[in-house]
Design goal:
The chain has 3 helices and no strands. With 70 residues, the protein is mainly alpha-helical.
Length: 70
């Protein structure tokens, strides 16, 4: 099923998937929604290793958050 879903997303977004993060961001911003929210890791084009919110059981102390002045 995953392959079929990926192919559908690529067709729907009219993309080759090279920068799928920006394709999804563009789709969210172009939607009729009043607000679009996307993870900073997607804006920066980082992979899953850069996740800030980890699933239960792998929690951090919160010391790794984003700071504009860094």
């Amino acid at each position: 099923m995953l392959r079929r879903e990926r192919e559908f997303a690529l067709r729907y977004l009219n993309t080759d998937g090279a920068e799928i993060n920006w394709d999804f961001i563009r789709a969210a911003v172009a939607s009729v929604a009043d607000t679009a929210v996307f993870p900073l890791q997607d804006v920066l084009g980082l992979g899953s290793e850069a996740r800030m919110n980890l699933p239960s059981g792998r929690r951090t102390t919160g010391a790794g958050g984003f700071c504009r002045d860094s």
